[in-house]
């Protein structure tokens, strides 16, 4: 055993968790400080649920959450049985006792939340997606103070874990608002039948395999490190005298303040309901056959159901392609004949296809400044257990019970405005992306802009392009919010802040 000292706090680590495990990175980071969800998605823990809570008594809640803090999972370990992470809303920080002076040092996007009038326009949360219709996170739903993300080896263990946490919190004046269940789908697919989670940003500091990819700067994911502009993203810096217990690290830029944000990050949560029968019914009507419907759907996604990119195999699905992320656009598909210019994956990760200087490292760097580290999980039963779109389309004419299914979209980013909101507004919702007209993202894009319909999908081809129109929405928003995922030291500061004021 070995003692690790962080500031004035001491933790006991197993030999398997000593410095040699994580200080060999090219740019060492202290994994003991970073909540585990940042480094791994807990793929070895298939059962997961997400609990939203509100605080009725700060003094009582603080005691229970201080005990819970010892059970939170940090990045130095790969848990085999269970994992717990905790993230705060702005309102929750205020309610637990963080002064408004300190809380207002957080980013404007985090403080203002997701359901303001301005954010609705940016994110496309209007009409049927308006926050007034949300199940949680809307203006007419109970206020959420913090989020517990729980993972376990199986469903029985998860239920036992979550129930024990819920009961302990309930006895300390913490009330559950709701709990969202998840369900992993076969072959790592999402509900429309496509392999998901392939193109994640490469963070060199978290890589144990020594891979040689273009890295996304650590500061795009974690606060307190240089970002893609070689600068420090805005983060909550507080006067040293407010850090009564000397728990927080100093400002890495050298000011006399303490960095409440370092090794923490922002977590974006969106509950996205997927209408699977509507999706495949529309595509089958447009394409004329089941085989052509799958090809059209693949054009819209930018990948075949197996996850193989259209750029690498434009004519048919090829599951034998092993590295499904090793491609670029400019040299191989500049005109979009293989993967349409408005396809979902081409919008959410343009790679080397955009200005300045398409095909260059500058273009890749531009794309990397807007990357999102995705940690979401699907929920609801699959439309067909095989997850095969061919089987889906055989059921379209049969009466099916109404089933709620979709994706709990979770992403981690250091700058909500420049990353998540930019991707959704400027790339996904933009009807003029890549020189198009009235073409939103065919999967997650808003179908209207400033009251005008935007519902086309264009396929570039020679000699004449083809286009489908009046494309309905297949994904609807059922809830959402912005959260702060603090470091270990910041969590301790947050829970002691009310005591020291």
The gist of it:
The protein is 26% helix and 18% strand.
Description:
The N terminus is likely disordered. 26% of the residues lie in helices and 18% in strands. The protein has a domain of 236 residues. The strands form six sheets. Strands 9, 10, 11, 12 and 17 form a five-stranded antiparallel beta sheet that branches. The chain has a four-stranded antiparallel beta sheet with strand order 4-5-3-6. It is of the alpha+beta class and 501 residues long.
Low-confidence stretches: 1-27
Number of helices: 16
Tell how many strands the DSSP assignment holds: 17
Q: Name the average pLDDT.
A: 92
Radius of gyration: 23 Å
Biggest sheet: strands, sense, closure? Answer: 5 strands, antiparallel
* Strand content range: 15-25%
**What separation lies between the terminal Cα atoms?**
37 Å
Q: Report the helical percentage.
A: 25-40%
Shape: globular
| Helix-strand category | alpha+beta
